[in-house]
Design a protein that fits this description.
By secondary structure, the chain is α+β, with helices and mostly antiparallel strands. It has three domains: 173 residues, FAD/NAD(P)-binding domain (3-Layer(bba) Sandwich); 50 residues, no CATH class; 92 residues, D-Amino Acid Oxidase, Chain A, domain 2 (2-Layer Sandwich), CATH 3.30.9. 27% of the residues lie in helices and 29% in strands. It is built from ten helices and 19 strands. The strands form three sheets. Strands 1, 2, 9, 10, 11, 12, 18 and 19 form an eight-stranded mixed beta sheet that branches. Helix 1 links the parallel strand 1 and strand 2. Helix 1 crosses helix 9 and helix 2 crosses helix 9. The longest helix is centred in the N-terminal third of the chain and has 15 residues. It is globular, with a radius of gyration of 21 Å. Bound molecules: flavin-adenine dinucleotide (FAD).
Length: 387
């Protein structure tokens, strides 16, 4: 075990592990990832892991399409399974949002995404068990679905390790050592480790690191709940993923007879938030699902969990070098929709580390300084997870 590496990655969620994998693809294998707990123990392991491609901007459309293609064929990328399940995705918008939806569908199609704008009547003919009341238009993506967030994270880490990278779990990074505008080492509970460059992917725990190097970001947290249901398999063998801008709810099938509902974004304290589901929230979201899909009236509630979205003011991430520290890259503020973009984020962070900038997709719209400049990312549906 060495105490000097070309690159040290802080945090073993999907972003850190994807970065390690893409560093190895660029030929950089004298690398170390440090994770204080286990891989995917943060927001990643709690994720609904939905992969949709409906976005309002060209950069996120490209990222979602390319990332979906990597995760759908994950074994070709890493040699390991990613658990992709192709369910199709129905994105429902409220009255007044029809034009925005059609504009986005045209954007997605121009980037090779099979996305189709449907009226409620057209959708009801294809999915007669679903009620489209109150819905103005639907975007249907037949190629979307969900994956296994732990499998993807571990797959990226395994493929990097097979190329020579090192992963140490149970090691907490306590600081980044900066000298003359360059990161030269990280401090850990087990001592100092020298680094040629550092990548910061510590999820909700990034703010303290950025404060310590004098480059704060406006990050905050919301608590997102996931309600677990058993659905009647004889009536609903499976179903597409359904997401609704009016309610903010998404629900998707899971293994066996399970369906997961993702709901609510409540401001919370990062370190003390309640990790279980509120009974009132489960009741409200089940009521919504039954209205939308009446065959769920026989579904039974079976607990669930809550996790953190680390959000930015425009609900888009920051993928950039940290101002003032040349060789420190950061991926932060994924605002509840990072998993689906993770391959392109890992690739961009690896490129920034090796080449000084993201070369495959220009990441300047997601630059660190955009909040200070007042040049925020827009979204057709207002700020929120449906960016
Ligand atoms: C309930 C929920 C549902 C979601 N659903 C979706 C979805 O359907 N689709 C989608 O695209 N996205 C979804 N997301 C968002 C997505 O999961 C996140 O954007 C993504 O997982 C963020 O990954 P990360 O690697 O940045 O962070 P994390 O997974 O939080 O990883 C950060 C890691 O850093 C480690 N760490 C922190 N501090 C230190 C330290 N000092 N030293 C060492 N290690 C440290 C932590 O232990 C952690 O493992 C969801 C998130 C939640 C919570």
């Amino acid at each position: 075990m060495s105490d000097s590496y070309d690159v040290v990655v802080i945090g073993g969620g999907v972003m850190g592990c994807a970065t390690l994998h893409y560093l190895a693809k660029l030929g950089v294998t004298n690398t170390l990832l440090l994770e204080r707990d286990t891989l995917a123990s943060g927001s990643t392991g709690l994720s609904m892991a939905i992969l949709r491609m409906h976005y309002s901007n060209e950069i996120t459309t490209r990222m979602a399409k390319e990332s979906r293609d990597v995760i759908a064929d994950f074994e070709s990328e890493t040699g390991h399974p990613g658990g992709f399940v192709n369910t199709g995705y129905l994105f429902l918008v409220a009255p007044g949002q029809e034009d925005a939806l059609r504009t986005n569908v045209a954007l997605q199609r121009s980037h090779g995404v099979d996305s189709r704008a449907l009226t409620p009547e057209e959708a009801a003919r294809s999915w007669p068990d679903i009620v489209f009341d109150g819905v103005a238009a639907i975007a249907y993506e037949p190629d979307s679905g969900y994956a296994d967030s732990s499998a993807v994270t571990n797959g990226f880490a395994l493929s990097a390790r097979e190329a020579g990278a090192e992963v140490r779990i149970g090691v907490t990074v306590t600081g980044i050592v900066v000298e003359r505008g360059r990161a030269i080492a990280v401090e850990t509970a087990e001592g100092r480790i020298n680094a040629g460059a550092v990548v910061l992917t510590a999820g909700p725990w990034i703010p303290e690191f950025l404060q310590s190097v004098g480059a704060p970001l406006p990050l905050s947290w919301v608590r997102h709940q996931v309600v677990k249901l058993h659905r009647p398999l004889n009536r609903i063998p499976s179903h597409p993923i359904i997401a609704d801008t009016a309610s903010g709810i998404s629900f998707r099938p899971d293994a066996a007879d399970l369906t997961l509902i993702g709901t609510r974004e409540d401001p919370t304290d990062r370190d003390t938030y309640n990790r279980s589901v509120d009974a009132s929230c489960a009741a409200e979201s089940l009521e919504y699902v039954v209205q939308r899909y009446p065959a769920f009236d026989e579904a039974g509630w079976d607990g669930g969990w809550a996790g953190l979205f680390t959000i930015t003011p425009d609900y888009h991430p920051v993928i950039d070098r940290v101002p003032g520290v040349d060789n420190l890259a950061v991926g932060a503020g994924f605002s509840g929709h990072g998993f689906k973009l993770s391959p392109t984020i890992g690739r961009a962070l690896a490129e920034i580390t090796v080449h000084g900038r993201a070369t495959t997709i220009d990441m300047s719209p997601l630059r660190f300084t955009r909040f200070a400049e007042g040049d925020l990312m827009g979204s057709a549906y207002g700020a929120g997870v449906f960016a």
